[in-house]
Amino acid sequence: MxxxxxxxxxxxxxxxxxxxVHAGLIVAIQQYLNALLRPRYRVAIERRTYLTLLEQDTxxxxxxxxxxxxxxxxxxxxxTALQQPETVTAxxxxxxxxxxxxxxxxxxxxxxxxxxxxxxxxxxKLTSExxxxxxxxxxxxxxxxxxxxxxxxxxxGSPLPMRLPPGAGAADYRIIISRAPRRPQADVLLFSVxxxxxxxPIPLRTGEPEPLxxxxxxxxxxxxxxxYDLAIDYRRPAEPPLAPEDxxxxxxxxxxxx
Length: 258
Fold this sequence. Notes:
alpha+beta; six-stranded mixed sheet; two-stranded antiparallel sheet; 5 helices; globular
């Protein structure tokens, strides 16, 4: 069953579901580009792993400082008596291992990385450790001769650093195409939840034509193959919530296709 949305389905952003969508989309892009670019290039799936505190869920809404226990209700003991410490059970924040996957387009003959394709995850935008690590990696790529394609299909969290021109409208989603010879300038595709995801040009060697990645079609095909309609309750609000006018639009769209 297809998604009712023309572009990015905001219900796919739900925590716990996006991780699966992210992994499936990485594989779909790899398979599409490998068929298109071989034998000149090979598209490889890479990974980075780190420990972080998922700050929004560390204590499931509990305060940052957890105090357990109550003051004694019995009269104070004489100063000569030994006071025994009270033993209680407390909850400590536990780091979680985060595995993030991304794509590298490599020259088949030399192994040189020509282009990096990143699909942002919640850890890149919402956790201090994950965001810091990703921003450092991003700066390394931007300081190199490697192209960067950065795909942000998540409304939660602040966008990664960029300076947009005056008058650029607000957007739900954004895709950055940073070609090494043109830096610091980069092309940014801005689009809303109501619009199809635009095709993404993939930069390669200088002078070579840039193939278009049909990201909207790949995501919609993945939605259908993976049966995400069975994992989503469209009667509930999207997570994170849509703006009121977009929520009303989405509700009408879902109702019309029910």
